[in-house]
Write a structure and sequence with these properties.
With 69 residues, the chain is mostly helical. The chain is 65% helix and 0% strand. The chain contains two helices and no strands. The chain is flat, with a radius of gyration of 28 Å. The model has no long low-confidence stretch (mean pLDDT 74).
Length: 69
C-alpha cells in the first residue's frame, strides 16, 4: 500500500509540474499598478458594523428591561 501511494504521489507531482505558466508577467517586467476602490467596500463594512452594534444594543437593553434592572 505504501508503494502504491508513493507511485501515485510521484505521478501526481509530475503532472502538476508539467502545467503551463499562468500567463503572468515575465521576468524583468514591472508589476502592473492596480487601483482598488475602497469606497464601496469600506462603506458597506462601516454600515454593517453600525447595524450590528445597534442590534446588540437593542438586545442588551431588552434583556435588562425583562430582568427589571
Amino acid at each position: 500500500m505504501l508503494i502504491a501511494g508513493l507511485l501515485l504521489g510521484g505521478a501526481t507531482l509530475q503532472a502538476v509540474q508539467a502545467q503551463p505558466s499562468s500567463g503572468g508577467p515575465g521576468p524583468g517586467t514591472p508589476p502592473a499598478i492596480t487601483d482598488a476602490p475602497l469606497d464601496g467596500g469600506a462603506s458597506l463594512l462601516l454600515a454593517s458594523g453600525v447595524g450590528y452594534g445597534l442590534a446588540r444594543l437593542r438586545r442588551v437593553r431588552g434583556l435588562k428591561k425583562a430582568a427589571g434592572v
